[in-house]
């Protein structure tokens, strides 16, 4: 019998606030839609902010011109990986888009902003003067960025980082930045191979096409007892691709057939592969992200939507393992901190 432990998920704690937001929204949404100014009336803006912060105080939000409606209300994780699921659940509870409003859980690209002037603590910058050095790192499937603006020489590092992040989001959209952008540095001298930010989407699209289908990276190591270990990790592995998957599920399977190095041999090897390929990989609402093998045990790491029932399905699969007692545990891990060492 598998050992199975459940812990409360974060999604359950925000559900009432999300429901209250959408029950409150119709009247205020109508009032906002009737305003002709691009600026929100102060009282309505404060009420809207209070309702969003009631869901979580670190959510970011914006009202702007929409692509499919006159206006868009965006509620975003603000770069906090642990809040991506909260923003997505807010979106999935939203009403259908209409002529006045559409709703988004991440900031979309805003190419017109790349030529805008922005004011940062009294310093006005023309973003049209930003240029980027780009380096594609195929090993990590990321594009590393060196951002330059002539006025960076007069700004502190924190301000430069904020402006660079704003430009990248305007060029790609928030989710694409999280998915494909790696290290971001700012400099006071223009890189020799610098390109305008408008060139970045084409570079990212080419990288994305190269990695359209996920693969597995494998490596070797040592167990705590000093024996050989094998590690396999899904690649590319991106938290943003599974916004609702906030539950970390660990499945430990002992195996009976191993070599002198205590790594599996057939028939155990074939059974372990079958358990993953025709079992775990087919569980709706979950994704297998890594597994570690050594000392006569394989440990699978999965993430799941806590509302999908995936954990119970995985428990049932593990209960049928025939080579020893399977162990299954679940924890709430919205930021995927448990596998941080495997994230690229």
Give a short overview:
The chain is of the alpha+beta class and 344 residues long. The protein is 30% helix and 27% strand. It has 3 domains: 10-104, no CATH class; 111-210, no CATH class; 215-342, 2-Layer Sandwich (Alpha-Beta Plaits), CATH 3.30.70.
Written account of the structure:
This protein has 344 residues and is of the alpha+beta class. It is 30% helix and 27% strand. It contains 8 helices and 14 strands. Residues 1-10 have low confidence and may be disordered.
Blueprint of the fold:
Blueprint: H1 10-34, H2 42-55, E1 60-65, E2 71-76, H3 84-92, E3 101-104, E4 117-120, E5 123-126, E6 131-137, E7 142-148, H4 157-172, H5 174-180, E8 181-187, H6 200-210, E9 215-222, E10 228-235, E11 247-254, H7 268-277, E12 286-294, E13 297-304, H8 310-319, E14 327-332
Parallel strand pairs: 2-3, 7-8
Antiparallel strand pairs: 1-2, 4-5, 6-7, 9-10, 10-12, 11-13, 11-14, 12-13
Helix pairs in contact: 1-2, 1-3, 4-5
Keywords:
alpha+beta, Alpha-Beta Plaits, 3 domains, six-stranded antiparallel beta sheet, three-stranded mixed beta sheet, globular, disordered N terminus
Query: How would the global form be characterised?
Result: globular
CA-atom Rg in angstroms: 24 Å
CATH architecture call of the largest domain = 2-Layer Sandwich
Helical content (DSSP H or I, runs of 4+): 25-40%
Task: Estimate the mean pLDDT confidence.
Answer: 93
End-to-end C-alpha gap: 35 Å
Secondary-structure element pattern, one letter each: HHEEHEEEEEHHEHEEEHEEHE
Number of strands: 14
Structural class, from helix and strand content? alpha+beta
How is the biggest beta sheet arranged? 6 strands, antiparallel
CATH topology of the largest domain: Alpha-Beta Plaits
**Low-confidence spans:** 1-10
Strand order of the largest sheet: 9-10-12-13-11-14
- The CATH class of the largest domain is identified as Alpha Beta
